[in-house]
Amino acid sequence: MMDSKVETISRLAQWRIDNFSPGSYRKSDPFKVGIWNWHLSVEKNRYLYVRLFPETSKVSKENPPIAVFVLLACVCFELMIMLVNYAVHERLLRTSEDFVWPVDSTFHSRFVIDVEFLDLKICPLNGGEASSIFPIDGTMECLSTQSTLRCLARMLDEGIHTDVTIHTADGTLKAHKAILSASSRVFQSMFHHNLKEKESSTICIEDMSMQSCMALLSYLYGTIKQEDFWKHRLALLGAANKYDIVALKDACEESLLEDVNSGNVLERLQEAWLYQLNKLKKGCLTYLFDFGKIYDVRDEINNFFRQADRELMVEMFQEVLRVWRPL
After folding, report:
1. What is the pLDDT of residue 79?
2. What is the pLDDT of residues 229-241, one digit of tens each?
3. Torsion-angle region of residue 78: left (phi > 0), alpha (psi -120 to 50) or beta?
4. Cα(266)–Cα(288) distance, rounded to whole angstroms?
């Protein structure tokens, strides 16, 4: 039948129905929106019953849709269309019984059913949060970033057009002056001024192992893995401080603060003092004195005091006075 066809454009589907009499039932041809084929059906008794449902298929069975849609029923009078009913719905749709809309109105033989899909989400069978199939704000930026990071990873891993050699404590690595310069003002100065690094296109980072330096490069190229960051974070902290890489320094501080315990608190306190990490320092002092963990490190504290900076010892003593101040 000619009027079983549903016209679609973008997320809008429109079904024009002619010569529909009481007691009739009609089902549309399938129409595609998103990843599913859909059907509309109408049945007229006392009410006009409108149904929207996905076509039975492997896709709809494995990924049943949650549809957010606007449904309109319109009566046509020659060149005029009068809105009869309007509704916004959000439903998980699997079968023709999941959404049945009774329209309490007297319809003539010609009318139009409009469905505008505001969103379509995939409902995971094993639970979890439904996710939209439509692009959202930031999607293109995310895709672009991912593509760029893949390119940077190739540049580093395959040595594409490298122009600087880095000498570490136990090996050499290749990198790109532009990437290093954009990441660090210290590196930028090396290549901008008439320093030996500019003339020889080499950098000596002999206070880092090759693995730690590779972790540093992976961070600068945006490809570092969490396990590598975790493993080399103390070395990365030193490099971030030396080469003025502020974001990396902040990330290292946050990470070191996350797992302070009795076995590392004095070492972390020393690192915090050395690199002027106020948040980490405060966290260590709070751990030691506010939580009383100073007793857990009493065997190590004497050796710590022999090596600690005098000003740090003064701060620790002031913390003792604050915590143990008589009421």
Report:
1. 47
2. 999 999 999 999 9
3. left
4. 9
pLDDT band at residue 163 using 50, 70 and 90 as cut-offs: very high
What's the token pair of residue 28?
């549309």
Which residue is associated with the tokens 């974001």? 247
3-state secondary structure the chain: CHHHCCEEECCEEEEEECCCCCCCEEECCCEEECCEEEEEEEEECCCEEEEEEECCCHHHHHCCEEEEEEEEEEEEECCEEEEEEEEEEEEECCCCCCCEEEECCCCCCCEEEEEEEEEEEECCCCCCCCEECCCCCCHHHHHHHHHHHHHHHHHHHCCCCCCEEEEECCCEEEECHHHHHHHCHHHHHHHHCCCHHHHHCEEEECCCCHHHHHHHHHHHCCCCCHHHHHHHHHHHHHHHHHCCCHHHHHHHHHHHHHCCCCCCHHHHHHHHHHCCCHHHHHHHHHHHHHCCHHHHHHHHHHHHHHHCCHHHHHHHHHHHHHHCCCC
User: Is the pLDDT confidence value at 78 over 60?
Assistant: no
| Residue 171 structure tokens | 């090996």
Q: For residue 85, name the pLDDT band (cuts at 50, 70, 90).
A: low
CA contacts within 13 A on the Cβ side of 136? 7
According to the model, what pLDDT value does residue 130 have? 85
Question: For residue 124, which phi and psi values (nearest 5 degrees)?
Answer: -65, 135
What digits encode the pLDDT tens for the residues 274-305?
999 999 999 999 888 888 888 888 888 888 88
Predicted confidence at residue 325, as pLDDT, reads 61
